[in-house]
Write a structure and sequence with these properties.
By secondary structure, the chain is an alpha/beta fold. The protein is built from 10 helices and 9 strands. Strands 2-1-8-7-6-3-4-5-9 form a 9-stranded mixed β-sheet, sandwiched between helices.
């Protein structure tokens, strides 16, 4: 069942373990292909289901065996995530001869992997539908979402028109923070960090802003870290900046 195994491996690498388990449950329930593809609205899920189902038929893997294999791969992926692993992540043009993870897939996957806590920091932000949808799914799971953003005042003339915080306007319960200009060492200092952390266990450090241009169009690079101490240290650093008053909550009136 080489073709099936390869298809499942690509899916769990791209989407993470939870969507693969979701597919396994659908197979156990006897769902057809259309219903299986509709199990998740996550970007890439329907295509992965189509590929896996085609590979399953090619290799003549029965439904029960396929479901068991999917769960096994998902569990193995999750156990491996407990150890520190580092990958490179890229936005912009891609070439099949050099396999790299896309920023869009990694960021959405990180958000979908959060069970309890999600921390984002960004300089610029604009609503980007795949990320917005993932953030809504996170809130439906009661994930706490915190975002540290730059402000128009803090950016000077470098940002204009719309507050970056407004990109989170439609995300219920999101907590927004900023670096007050009065706390900065000089007028040219900027809140320029761009990270995403899920449950203090998965960390994305990137040059990418939370905008369509940054996530899809620009050539941007980043590092994805699973496990180890780096994700937890990143969250602890932001928590310390909050505790010491370097970062302050944005009130609704300041960004809507």
């Amino acid at each position: 069942m080489k073709i099936f195994a390869e298809a499942v491996g690509r899916a769990v690498d791209e989407l993470g373990p939870e969507p693969v388990r979701l597919l396994a449950g659908g197979l156990d329930d006897g769902l057809g292909d259309t219903a299986l593809r509709a199990l998740s609205s996550r970007s890439g899920f329907a295509d992965a289901v189509t590929t896996i189902r085609a590979a399953q038929r090619t290799d003549e893997v029965d439904e029960r065996s396929a479901a068991s294999y999917l769960r096994g791969v998902a569990d193995g992926h999750e156990r491996g995530a407990a150890r520190e692993r580092v990958e490179t992540v890229w936005s912009g043009p891609r070439h099949h001869t050099v396999p790299v993870r896309s920023t869009a897939a990694v960021l959405v996957g990180l958000i979908d992997a959060a069970h309890d806590d999600l921390l984002l920091t960004t300089y610029s932000a604009r609503p980007y539908p795949p990320v917005q949808a993932a953030l809504h799914r996170a809130r439906e799971r009661n994930v706490r979402i915190r975002a540290v953003v730059e402000t128009l005042q803090g950016a000077g003339s470098a940002l204009a028109d719309v507050q970056p915080a407004a990109a989170f306007r439609d995300i219920p319960g999101v907590q927004l923070w900023h670096w007050p200009t009065g706390r900065r060492p000089n007028p040219s200092a900027r809140m320029h960090a761009k990270i995403a952390v899920a449950d203090a266990s998965i960390l994305l450090v990137s040059s990418t802003n939370l905008t369509r241009s940054g996530i899809e169009h620009n050539i941007e690079s980043g590092i994805l870290v699973r496990g180890g101490t780096a994700p937890r240290r990143a969250v602890e650093h932001i928590d310390r900046l909050v505790a010491e008053g370097e970062l302050e909550r944005l009130s609704t009136g300041e960004w809507r």
